[in-house]
Amino acid sequence: KPVPAADGTEAILSVTSDKTDTLYLRGFVGDTYKNGTWSALDAETAAAEKDLFYWLHENDFYPQSQFALSAAQTAEYKTETIQISNLSACSLYRYEPFSVLPTSAGTTKNRLAPSAVKTSGWNGEREYSYAVIADASTILPQILDDLQQNEANSAYLQLESAYRDFVDSYALAVPQEFTDELGALLEETRKNLNFSGELSKEQAQLCALSFLKSCFDGNTSLPLDSTVKGTTYQYATVAVLALRYYGIPARYVEGYTVKTAENEPTSVDANAAGAWVEVYQDGIGWLP
To answer: Residue 200: CA atoms inside 13 Å, Cβ hemisphere, count?
Structure first.
């Protein structure tokens, strides 16, 4: 259903970074789509995986910090410090940037352990800071190459493989209601690209991007047609489920996209709120 456009000008967050950057501040990560609603991982599923997460944390592997962990294994990287003041946003969640550094990567007073997304206390936390990998996209190819070629990373890759199996157990699930609604169009996209049988990752990406392009072009009879200039919440939902349909683990995220200037507080209002997609990249984790 259409979501009213967010156009409030009241400051919700104040964000300061020591570098000029575009930040994706995750507030809510939706894992499961059912009856038109995204929900965080349910308690029963989480409880069933408690031994896995205990083992991962015991070995200093945190999913929130996975990109930074892989960078620490392989690359020369620079850090960026981000300070967030929550002025009026929901304080149930911390607004958490991409590529948070774990404390084990080297401790400074501004470097926090990765959060568990939800905050503690009756009203949650209002001010907090993070250290993250700067220029993450620039060093991404180097990290992937090194992980493939360097046997010294075998311990890290063993932990990553165990977590990836867990990711595949839920982040590839496509609800029947989505397949019933859009399955024919998704298959038509595959046929138009002359792909058959099990898709490679590259083929799956091409299928998903081609399908999404047709959504934005307005050339298909999607339920989104009446809101073709609709919201990021709608398109992120369709994108996540399309990526999963073609075999790419994906999740839905809500939060704020913020462009910062070096060492200057940036006021964030409702116009910055929205949803986006994160896909799971083998070896380095969730990427926006």
So the answer is: 4
212 pLDDT band, cuts 50/70/90, is: confident
* 3-state class (DSSP) for residue 256: strand
Residue 95 · residue 26 · CB < 8 Å: yes
Top pLDDT among 122 and 152 is at: 152
CA 265 to chain centre: 24
Mean residue pLDDT of the chain comes to: 84
Find the farthest-apart pair of alpha carbons in the chain and give their distance in angstroms, rounded.
55
Six token digits for residue 59: 């070995």
Question: Could you read off the pLDDT of 257-279 as tens digits, one per residue?
Answer: 999 999 999 999 988 999 999 99
The residues near 165 (Cβ < 8 Å, ≥ 6 apart) are none
**Span 64-108, pLDDT tens digits:** 889 988 988 887 888 999 999 999 887 777 888 888 887 655 434
Phi, psi of 37 (to 5 degrees): -135, 140
Question: Which DSSP string corresponds to 157-212?
Answer: HHHHHHHHHHHHHHTT---HHHHHHHHHHHHHHHHHTT--SSPPHHHHHHHHHHHH
Token readout for 126 is 């209002």
Q: At what angle do helices 136-149 and 66-74 cross, to 10 degrees?
A: 60
